[in-house]
Amino acid sequence: MVDVTVRGAGAFGLSVAYACVMRGARVRVVDPNGVGGGASGGLVGALAPHVPENWNPKKAFQFAALDRGEAFWREVEEIGGLPSSYARTGRLQPIADDHALALALARAETAKELWQDRYAWEVVEAGDWGPVTPTGKLIHDRLTGRMFPRKAVTALAAAIRARGGEIVGEGPDEGAVVWATGAAGLVEMSTARGRLVGAPIKGQSALLDFDARDLPQVFADTVHIVPHADGTTAIGSTTEREFDDPTSCDDQLDRVLERAYAAMPVLRGAKVLERWAGLRPRARTRAPMLGAWPGKPGQFIANGGFKIGFGVAPEVGRVMADLVLDGVDDIPDGFRVEDNL
To answer: Is the pTM of this model over 0.90?
Structure first.
């Protein structure tokens, strides 16, 4: 008999399970698709903040999670013995014109307060590594991190097992049940309620044979360019609300790659090692969907990670373990299950 059953072995499910086992709970993770079988088995892994202005609970929660990221993933590595591929390498963004430059400089000032003088948002001169920028200047934020999603979920799974947790393909519901079932779970909830709770959003990405492992990631023309610790560089991704095949790659990914090459010409000619497509869970509010499942005592939901799932995972695990194990509700406004129902 376990204390907590977590359904779903992606970023949210494993983070919740990890937080619970670290507090001494007996935990079983159940996922017929295995660890990282959904969107958490992708390629990109950009752990980037929203712009430091117009502060709200979502941005504050994300900042807390990104701030914890380095310590969180180092602990996971130490307990489980496997690398997570995490590093706080920062991020570069182009500055298009004088108006964008003025905004960037203003945000450099607000970042000092909102990011608590711990991480800088700077305007810097373009150098040897970085995107094409019309002004010759770049935004360099020092808060952004990166990790290879597949390595991260494998490291989390190893840490859970090292602490006595189980990860299985099939199993009964025992104890408190946390539903972290991603895109499929949002579809099931929407169907059951007869209205939109959330939806799967298809994303396509690619992995290049290009070694920039110690350099900052780049965000330009809506494209993430993320150097990984293993000497590859991920490019992503599309955002597709309508699709026929959730796992196929097509010319939309080719267009993403072309935008990446235009932003970073040094990447052109690098071998494409892998193309990937999958469904990411986006809740109706576009914020994570966390908390008790209304009308279902002892059952909880952790879903809606969409593009920020790995970035906020350390705090998702914490607040869900607080709620499930101790009955303490520290979930921020806008993130609650009821907000999507």
So the answer is: yes
